[in-house]
Design goal:
Radius of gyration: 22 Å
CATH architecture of the largest domain: 3-Layer(aba) Sandwich
Distance between the termini: 27 Å
Largest sheet: 7 strands, parallel
Structural class: alpha/beta
Shape: globular
Number of domains: 2
Order of helices and strands: EHEHEHHHEHEHHEHEEHEHEHEHEEHHHH
Strand order of the largest sheet: 3-2-1-4-5-6-7
CATH superfamily of the largest domain: Glycogen Phosphorylase B
Number of strands: 13
Helix content: 40-55%
């Protein structure tokens, strides 16, 4: 098949969770199909990044994204517009022209839009069925549920507008995927009845050789850029409310935070001894493997956590909140430890730091579960099956076929 893939991130290097999912799924599809990539990205890819993508894509082109500027006038005008203000603010006519041109040249058998931002552009490619990957709704539902007062009304209006936008977009698609059962439940009422849908979770590189390193005692790691609000909140929570309990029991315990962080973001964290900022690490697997445990004290955000899967694939045990482990088929006490209060989270962390046998058991069981359920090659095959099924039926908008 000829696949035209639309993305809002250039997939190489795969140095964050979104790009890792893109890179692994695209490479999996490229193994059996002719893959053409069109990307609307924040910065033009460098020569090496372009070559990396062309190693598995038949063609790859990019247009720079425009920065979203949603002012009060745009918000008010959205009251009578079918599209949310954020969608209108980021629309790129240059990228729309690129999609039309590439669709005419490639004549794809299927158009694959990665994430909702690419869905409106996929509608510009006529004649081929369209699949939307990673339809995400939970973030807006969670924001509405957490809001109070006037903010709750604004969140409700945003959610209502977003639901209507998704419902309208899906009428032009032949199927969609989500990353978790919860996302599936939220998306189902918005899709035409009977539309093909598939849970395509995030995964891990379980087939690659494990780093030959020994774990450093009393070391914890959190891999995540503080520029992402959920990561910043997680580290404020851990350093301010959990780490003091951990260091009271294990005074030499130290936490490594990886990923890009500005001085202002670092300053927004509570002051504490035993915290190290590594900055961006090009190859993080060895650093995770060297850590005694990974902590994932997330309280906000959505999707399934690649950082948990990657750590377990390396045999590094994980302590997480329920929110952090949301959507993953992992069992507390067997595959990882889950705790939702500062005291319980600290107790679980201390237990891991002080018991090598517990660390070994969790690391081994967690890796087995990830190998069984979250192998990228298996996950890519599931997406491939969906694409082949849709192309076989030649279902240009499913809503029309089902009518």
């Amino acid at each position: 098949m000829r696949i035209l893939a639309l993305t809002s991130w250039w997939p190489e290097p795969a140095d964050n969770g979104i790009k890792l999912r893109l890179s692994r799924l695209l490479q999996s599809l490229a193994g059996g199909h002719e893959l053409h990539l069109a990307t609307l990205c924040q910065a033009p890819p460098a020569a090496g990044q372009r070559l990396a993508a062309l190693a598995y894509c038949a063609s790859a082109e990019a247009e720079p994204a425009r920065e979203a500027q949603v002012d009060r006038a745009a918000q008010l005008s959205s009251l009578w517009s079918a599209r949310p203000a954020s969608v209108r603010a980021t629309w790129s006519e240059d990228f729309a022209a690129l999609v039309r041109r590439r669709a005419a040249q490639v004549r794809p058998d299927v158009v694959l839009a990665f994430e909702l931002a690419m869905a409106p552009y996929a509608l510009l490619a006529p004649g081929a069925p369209r699949i939307l990957d990673d339809l995400e709704m939970a973030t807006l539902y969670d924001a509405f549920a957490a809001a109070t007062g006037r903010r709750r009304l604004r969140r409700w209006l945003t959610l209502t507008k977003h639901r209507a936008h998704v419902r309208q977009l899906l009428r032009g698609f032949a199927g969609y995927t989500v990353v978790s059962p919860r996302e599936a439940a939220l998306a189902r009422p918005l899709a035409p009845a009977g539309m093909p849908a598939l849970v395509v979770p995030n995964g891990a590189d379980v087939d690659r050789a494990l780093p030959d390193v020994a774990p450093d005692p009393d070391t914890l790691i959190y891999p995540g850029a503080l520029s992402y609000a959920a990561n910043l909140d997680a580290m404020q929570y851990f350093i301010g409310s959990i780490l003091p309990f951990v260091r009271a029991a294990r005074p030499v315990a130290r936490l490594r935070i990886t990923g890009r962080a500005t001085p202002a973001q670092i300053a927004a964290l509570p002051a504490s001894d035993g915290v190290e900022f590594t900055g961006f690490v090009p190859e993080i697997k060895a650093l995770v493997a060297r850590s005694w445990a990974e902590v994932v004290p997330l309280r906000t955000g959505s999707g399934t956590r690649l950082k948990i899967l990657e750590a377990l694939a390396l045999g590094t045990p994980v302590v997480s909140t329920t929110k952090g482990a949301e959507g993953l088929e992992l069992v507390h006490g067997r595959d990882l430890l889950v705790a939702d209060t500062p005291e319980a989270f600290a107790a679980a962390t201390v237990a891991l730091l002080s018991q090598p046998g517990l660390r070994a058991a969790l690391g081994e069981a967690g890796r087995r579960s990830v190998v069984a359920r979250y192998n990228w090659s298996v996950i890519g095959g599931q997406l491939d099956d969906l694409l082949r099924s849709v192309v076989a039926t030649r279902s240009v908008p499913y809503a029309k076929r089902a009518a």
